[in-house]
Each structure stands twice: as C-alpha cells, then as structure tokens.
Design a protein that fits this description.
This protein is α/β, with parallel strands linked by helices. It is built from 5 helices and 6 strands; from the N terminus they run βαβαβαβαββα. The protein is 37% helix and 24% strand. Helix 1 packs across helix 5 (127-142).
C-alpha cells in the first residue's frame, strides 16, 4: 500500500489545521496517510514514505521553529530524497513568506523534488485556505497512484 506522511510543527494550531486538511485531501482509496507531529516523527517516517508533506509556521525573523522542526529538517540533510515527492506548507503572521522560500531552496539544494511552491497561509486558514490544503494533499497523492 502506498504511504504519505504529513509531518508538521504548529505553535498556535494554524499549521496543524493545514496538516489535517492536506492529510484529508491525500486520503484517497488505497493510500495510507500518516499525520505526525514532528516531535513524534523520525527521518524513517520520511524515507519509508512514497510522498511527504512537511509543515512549519514562520517563527521569529522568518525561520523554521528551532527546537523541533529545524533539527528534524537538519536530520534529513544528506539523505537521498530525490525519489520522494515533497510538499512544504505553513502559516505565518507577518512578513512575505521568506521562510518558505528559504526552506524550499534548502530542500531543493539537498536534492529533494518539490511538488510545487510551498503553500503558505496567513494566520488561521479560512475555507478557501483549507480547500487549497486539500487540493495539495490530493495532488501529492496523485503523484504516487
């Protein structure tokens, strides 16, 4: 059975809502979806998946959360991720999304194949934002069907 892992860090619950919607969009017949908070995830959850979505809200001066998500992303560096379709997502409060641009560049420089530009939503996702998340999940699932 094909497997997608949706791994996220969320401080206020906004990115968690996005993760849940992405997981729902990816949960097509015959595809197993694991929704995992990054504090419970391992790099094997990424390496043993057919596709992955990673989510983190912008922190501080538009960076990844430094206590859990940054070390997790660092643990993936040097791994061969080129055969695993990858989507990035997250919420932010201010700024222009530079953390997502930096994250996407970092993952691509490491050999990852990004499905599309990172999905960002300001503050809590509204219905339109949740629809975009579900569509991203479905698109991720379509890459491995």
């Amino acid at each position: 059975m094909k497997k997608i892992s949706v791994i996220y860090w969320s401080g206020t619950g906004n990115t968690e809502q996005m993760a849940e919607a992405i997981a729902a969009g990816a949960a097509l017949e015959g595809i197993s979806v694991n929704l995992i908070s990054v504090d419970k995830a391992s790099k094997e959850d990424v390496l043993k998946s057919d596709a992955v979505a990673l989510g983190c809200s912008a922190m501080g001066n538009e960076v990844l959360e430094e206590g859990e998500m940054e070390p997790f992303v660092t643990s993936l560096e040097g791994e061969n991720l080129s055969s695993i379709p990858l989507a990035l997502f997250g919420s932010y409060d201010w700024g222009d999304g530079q953390w997502m641009k930096d994250w996407a560049e970092r993952m691509e420089d490491g050999g990852a194949t990004l499905l599309e530009e990172g999905l960002i939503i300001q503050n809590a996702p509204d219905q339109e934002g949740l629809d975009l998340c579900r569509k991203l999940g479905a698109k991720l699932a379509a890459t491995i069907r």
